[in-house]
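Continuing from the previous page of notes. For each protein in this section, the sequence appears first, followed by its structure tokens. Read the first protein now.
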Amino acid sequence: MDLIKLIEQTAEGLGYEVVDIELSTRGRLLRVFIDKEGGIDVEDCSTVSNQLTRVFMVENIDYDRLEVSSPGLDRPLTKLAHYERFVGEEVQLRVRVPVSNQRNFKGVLKGVEGDVVVLQVGVGESRFAFEDIDKARLVPKF
């Protein structure tokens, strides 16, 4: 089974959403970012970490270190469903190919139309195909 699918299936079976997974270049460090309604605490991270450790042993997954944590206030947006969930929030995104010589954009998330993310930037709207977005994060409010 694919490692990412294995991690998602395990965490979702425990009632958590996998927000993002980071793998080191040699696969020795695994970082798993989880979330659930109401937020994540240390016990949640421990629960998922312990379960993944057991699953990795059974599946003979070789790694050095596993880190499980919350996505944080500047949560990454990695799926279209994340963009739909956070409509009205301020986001910062980076596109793969420059648009008008610009790759970084910051604005209020207006919505999703099919596979297109709509962002209110200044007085206008910008539209980005989901597959053209390299990275996107919520901008935390303090």
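Done with the first. The second protein uses the same format. Note its length before scrolling.
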Amino acid sequence: MSIDQSTAAKVAKLARIKVEDDALPALASEFNTILGFIEQLNEVDVEGVEPMTSVTPQRLKRREDVVNDGSQQDKVLANAPDAREGFFAVPKVVE
């Protein structure tokens, strides 16, 4: 796949990046270089390779998944501009 200048301009527009017309050839070239690297990665055989979270073997810290209310309702609501009955109060937006 190759990126031309019109496609590079479209990508820049979608990304909300202002790119001058004279910079489009360089941007298209950079996109093509990136796509070339991705194609190289797709050629690598990863069959049987375990996913890893780090380059050094280590065990991640784990905790038991317990649902609780956080026991901090008063502290959280102390920062609210308007709180009523234990909840944040917000202006009504739908009539």
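What the second structure shows: The beta strands are 83-84, 87-88. DSSP finds three helices and two strands in the chain. We return to this in next week's lecture.
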